[in-house]
Design goal:
- By secondary structure, this protein is mainly beta.
- The chain is built from one helix and 14 strands; from the N terminus they run E-E-E-E-E-E-E-E-E-E-E-E-E-H-E.
- The two termini are 12 Å apart.
């Protein structure tokens, strides 16, 4: 039989979730030679978002019952992170080579993220008379990722363990209260991989097939790479860097045309 090409000009919706790696302040402070190093404590619950994709796939038939599928998708994921309260400590060396613990205490922070990525699924397809099942790995390559903080406050303080001195209420020197609304920028991203699966129904319509399926994906590491939440003085970045390791789960409905 001829190879089956499935084109997806339609939008598929999904729900995304983000989970924190360090729910408690359990990471020990390292030796000075390991600087810089963050210590964090946060309670950031998973939040839902939306995902939209368009793409094209090609199935190389092995027999009447199935084949190997390869595709390329362009997707956009929109998620929201919220934190009622969190703390973050970043140990650095100041201009005098003294150890400084740069600390952040945040509350009521809300941040939206938009990530555009190329997704390359490779899967094995099992086909019946009208139904099909796809399952296999997927590589995701971020193209553009941005964050925008819409609400929240953070207090930045500094502590010199050598002198037992704490610095605060010095906004001109990077220590003080800051309103995070409007704080935005680009996210540090990485190529990641995951597992995708779909089950669907193939409805013949003249010379083409209408494919309707439900799918689920799980990215092992999420799109956002690890980075420092703070840079002295008073350079505050994405809440994702407080969360740490993230897993992105998505599921939804896909509609396509098969030739």
């Amino acid at each position: 039989s001829a190879p089956n090409i499935r084109i997806f000009p339609a939008i598929s919706g999904a729900v995304g979730m983000a989970r924190q790696r360090y729910p408690r302040n359990i990471t020990p402070i390292p030796r000075v030679t390991h600087l810089p190093y963050p210590i964090l404590s946060a309670r950031i619950p998973p939040k839902n978002g939306m995902k939209y994709t368009v793409g094209i796939e090609y199935v190389f038939p092995i027999n009447r019952m199935g084949g190997i599928g390869l595709g390329i998708h362009y997707g956009q994921t929109k998620t929201v992170l919220e934190a009622n309260e969190f703390s973050y400590s970043y140990r650095i060396l100041d201009d005098e080579n003294d150890i400084l613990d740069y600390k952040a205490y945040g509350c009521d922070v809300k941040e939206s993220q938009v990530i555009n990525a190329l997704e390359i699924p490779v899967y094995y397809q099992i086909r019946g008379k009208s139904v099909f099942l796809n399952i296999g790995p997927e590589i995701a390559i971020p193209i553009k990722a941005e964050y925008n903080t819409t609400a929240g406050d953070v207090e930045l303080t500094g502590y010199y363990p050598k002198y037992n001195v704490e610095l605060k209420d010095l906004p001109n020197h990077g220590f003080g209260q800051y309103d995070l609304a409007g704080n935005h920028g680009r996210l540090e991203t990485r190529v990641t991989w995951g597992i995708n699966a779909a089950v669907g129904y193939c409805y013949p319509l003249g010379t083409v097939d209408i494919n309707v399926s439900v799918y689920a994906k799980f990215l092992m590491n999420g799109y956002v790479d690890e980075a420092n939440y703070l840079e002295y003085p008073s350079n505050i970045k994405s809440l994702s860097y407080v969360v740490g390791k993230q897993h992105l789960c998505s599921f939804g409905l896909s509609v396509g045309i098969g030739f």
